[in-house]
Amino acid sequence: MTLVVGVDAGGTVSRAVVATTDGVIVGRGEAGPGNPLAAGANSAVAAAVHEALRGHSPRSVVAATLGIAGPATAALFTPALTALGITARVDVIGDVVTALAAGTPTTSGTVLVAGTGAIAASIRDGVVAGTADGLGWLLGDEGSGRWLGLQAVRAAVRDWDSPFAARVAARTGARTANEMVYWAQALPLSEIGALAPLVCEAARSADPHATAIVDQAVTHLVRTLDELGPAEPIVLAGGLLAGDTPVRDGVLATLRTRGLHPRTSLDPAAGAAWLAARPSSPLSPAALHEALLGDRRIRGGDPGA
To answer: How confident is the model at residue 162 (pLDDT cuts 50, 70, 90)?
Structure first.
């Protein structure tokens, strides 16, 4: 069996897919964060690949494509993959490229990502031609999961007697507004980001604080996309935009009013595997994409999509 490896390594989790060159996924793996800025040079990517390879020979791998959030080179990951027995070529590309690949069989388009962080990117022939935001939680990533969590904490300490503050306090363990302040000053970034589902759930329940935060996130994300003058196909990626969230609903509603009908990126690791397999696959790029990813367009979007 001739195999390829695809990896999607983000700020929260790294996922790996092992597939045949004719588009059959034979293994999946998952490990911790693989973003070098967030986690440094760690073994999470190799751990995810090791799990995905279980039962298959690493020497059968003819190519590996790693989609990495943050600056990285193959040299950062190749030694750990070589230790697993993988001697094939390793390509490290931006996770925005693999996110686009997971939503369309074309190699050009625009992708908007909102997960742990947030970024929009223009892709031309598989190469990043321009980006907007993606500046990290301190300077940007507006509308991201971590941004939602930060806004939740800020809203809670400013209106401590609100039902929304009670939700946030129950999650963080803070008993007073002052305790919340001290909790936040310690910068528990993963726990702050983990408040994003709470915000989305509260917004679904029409909580005014959560609804306002979600509305702001939608505004920020659409504005980030607009900075690029987005060209179709547009692919929405990351947990907030590929999952069933009010943030996605708001972004979709705004884009629909402009006559735009985005697709969704549901499996960037498989998108990375598609990129790795294309040069050696007996299938056409479109047929290979269909085999690995199927129809990934957003349900309820374009009636013809």
So the answer is: very high
